[in-house]
Amino acid sequence: MTSVPPRIARALLETPLMSEGHEDFRETWKWRRELRKVFSDLTGWTVQISPGVLRLCGQAPFPDAGRAGSEELDSPRAASMFAWTLWYHESLGRVSELHQFTLEELAGAITQASGTDFLKSTDRQALTRALKALTALGAVQLIDAGDDAWLEGRGPEGQAPLPGTVGGKLFEFTVLAAYLISPAPPDSPTDLQRAYRALLTGPALSRARDPQAYLALDATACRQIESVFGWSTDQQGDYAALLRDAQPRRSAHHVPQGRSAGSAAALLLTEAVRAEQATGRLGRDTQGRVLISGGELYGLMDTVREQYRAHWGQFGLKSTETLLGETLDRWRALGALSDWPGSPDGYALEPHLARVRAAYPDPQPSEKRSRTTATNATPGLFSNDLT
């Protein structure tokens, strides 16, 4: 296989949409043809090469199952606004050469197309989170910060925010936005290519979720991916994981980092499940997955909520049922949750969840700004600082 410095392969993997101005672009561009062959052979992914742009196709900006690719896309509504914003870019391209827009113009166009009126603060927040995610990807840049009147629902002299409220913030689409709209080429990956994809874009390759891919990951295959990316492979019998030296910056399926209250709650519930399993009250199936009923999860979520909701602001006012539903969505997005076969109200949790540990350094309710940290059963898989 063509030789590429591991740090160059990692750079494109972690920033699959890269343009001039990115700190790693110039050096990565020198290896563009070698990178195309390496990723094609290893994973079946395509590397698109355009003037000033490199795109690793096959990694969506957020995963197929949900929103784990960005802390900002932590809800179906935010993910929907992400898609609507790209739709708006596409409409601008057809009718105008202008690519700058205000927050109000964007909201107005989405309202006409979808019926969303943005009078609900949750819809306004979802749109702003989508714009933050697009900004992090480099597809949108902030031109004028303006003010937060629109987001906070403040119109002129206390009037309703819509219609008529000036959005305040001015944005501009970059050349990368069009690449998020164009689909990746269709493909038919081999068992081994699926194994490599799971290792590179997710926390782990689970034997339960893809038995054929797991069987294809033999010692030779492990050495191959280790030589390309410089990361060791850890196989635990029921799953395999790459021991990265740091949390991937933009990996599609990375573990939530605890920067939001929702992801912190999900991490803390994972810790509660681990503690419950240590008592011997939770069983495992033949593929190493932890089996737990919906009622047991509800009880654990209720305990976590009571203990930590003082850290979560308005998020902490949500019901236990709502918090649990959102956490299950996050676990599904990580490929870590399945239905318990034969149980109408049960779940099977993938064993790789046990690699992540979470706690507040100082869980005092009086603390104004809290931090959630996570460590790993095996150091180096994910960042130890998930603040």
Structural notes for this entry:
The structure is a single chain. With 387 residues, the protein is α+β, with helices and mostly antiparallel strands. The protein has 3 domains: 6-60 and 184-243, no CATH class; 76-181, Arc Repressor Mutant, subunit A; 261-376, Arc Repressor Mutant, subunit A, CATH 1.10.10. The protein has 14 helices and 15 strands. It has helices spanning 6-14, 25-30, 32-43, 76-95, 103-114, 121-137, 149-152, 177-181, 191-201, 211-216, 219-229, 261-278, 294-308, 320-333, and strands at residues 17-19, 47-50, 53-56, 100-102, 140-144, 170-173, 205-206, 232-235, 239-243, 283-284, 290-293, 337-339, 346-349, 356-359, 373-376. The strands form 5 sheets. A 4-stranded antiparallel β-sheet has the order 10-11-13-12. The protein has a 3-stranded antiparallel β-sheet with strand order 1-3-2. Helix 4 packs across helix 6 (121-137) and helix 13 (294-308) packs across helix 14. The longest helix is centred in the N-terminal third of the chain and has 20 residues, at 76-95. It is flat.
Q: How would you concisely characterize the structure shown here?
A:
Helix content is 41%, strand content 14%.
Question: Which helices and strands occur, and which strands form pairs?
Answer:
Blueprint: H1 6-14, E1 17-19, H2 25-30, H3 32-43, E2 47-50, E3 53-56, H4 76-95, E4 100-102, H5 103-114, H6 121-137, E5 140-144, H7 149-152, E6 170-173, H8 177-181, H9 191-201, E7 205-206, H10 211-216, H11 219-229, E8 232-235, E9 239-243, H12 261-278, E10 283-284, E11 290-293, H13 294-308, H14 320-333, E12 337-339, E13 346-349, E14 356-359, E15 373-376
Antiparallel strand pairs: 1-3, 2-3, 4-6, 5-6, 7-9, 8-9, 10-11, 11-13, 12-13, 14-15
Helix pairs in contact: 4-6, 12-13, 12-14, 13-14
